[in-house]
Structures are given as C-alpha cells and as structure tokens.
Amino acid sequence: MAKELAAHRRFQAEERIAAGSQWQNNDLVVATRDGRHVSPRNFDQSLERIVSNAGVPRLTSHGLRHTAATHMVRHASDIGEIRAAADVLGHSPDMLMKTYAHALPESVRTVTDKIGQRARMIE
After folding, report:
1. 39, 56, 73: which is the final residue of a domain?
2. Measured between alpha carbons, how far is 58 from 72 in angstroms, rounded to an integer?
3. Do 33 and 19 touch, CB atoms closer than 8 A?
4. DSSP sequence for 30-68
5. Residue 3 is inside which H or E element, if any?
6. Core-most of 36, 67, 85, 92, by most CB within 10 Å?
7. Domain end point (choices 56, 75, 90)
C-alpha cells in the first residue's frame, strides 16, 4: 500500500506541474487535476470503476471510511490518539469508542472500561 501511495504522490506532483498556476494546494490525497475537492458522486463512480477493474469485492467510500476508522482505533496507543482519530472522523471520542469498541486495543479498552465504571458509580 505504501508503494501505491508513493506512486500516487508522484502522479499528483506531475498533475500539479501540469496545472501550473491553476493548481489549488488543498493537501488532498484524492483531488481533481487542478487540486480541488472531488465531488462525492464522481469519487464514488471512480472508486466503483477502479474496484471493478481490479476484480476485488465491492467497496464503497463508506466502507473505506469505516476501514480507516477501524485501523486508526485498532492502532491507537493511548487516549490522545483515540481523540485525534475522532477529530479526523468528525466524531466525539465517546461516539468513536462506542462504534469501534471491537477494534480498541486491549490497553485502551481497559482504560475506557474503568472510565465507564466510574461514570456509572457517580450516577
């Protein structure tokens, strides 16, 4: 995957040069030829075409987001990283932990369980 992302980065650098002064530097992984945001409909259509051509099981943009969130949560080493993942996804940390509890590392799950126990004692 890292190799593909590096290749994509080189491709985008070529697009940036070709676009010249028209390039809008929005620091996006997926962008139009001039650096702007891709419309969700166009992204979904392109993703569907790529997945179909690759011959892999169906994958949606929502599925990509869920997979990314699961990986962020699974590989978080502390609550700060959980909070950062929540910020990236636009969730509260509480919502993130409820939705992705299955992916929480054991050490983080232990901490969140203790927090939950203390919160119930206060109620």
Report:
1. 56
2. 22
3. yes
4. S--TTSPPPPHHHHHHHHHHHHHHHTPPP--HHHHHHHH
5. helix 2-19
6. 85
7. 56
- Which DSSP helix (H) or strand (E) runs through 71? helix 61-74
- Of the candidates 28, 50, 49, 47, the one whose C-alpha atom is nearest the C-alpha of residue 37 is 28
Q: Say how many domains are in the chain.
A: 2
3-state secondary structure of 25: coil
Closest C-alpha among 84, 81, 47 to residue 64: 47
Cβ neighbors of 71 (< 8 A, separation 6 or more) are 103
- Please name the residue that has the structure tokens 């962008």: 31
If asked whether residues 50 and 7 sit together in one domain, one would say yes
**pTM passes above 0.85:** no
Structural element, H or E, at residue 89: helix 79-89
Over residues 16-27, the pLDDT tens digits come to 999 999 999 998
Structure tokens at 104: 């929480």
Q: Are residues 90 and 38 in the same domain?
A: no
| Per-residue pLDDT tens digits for 40-87 | 898 899 889 888 888 888 889 899 898 889 888 888 888 888 889 999
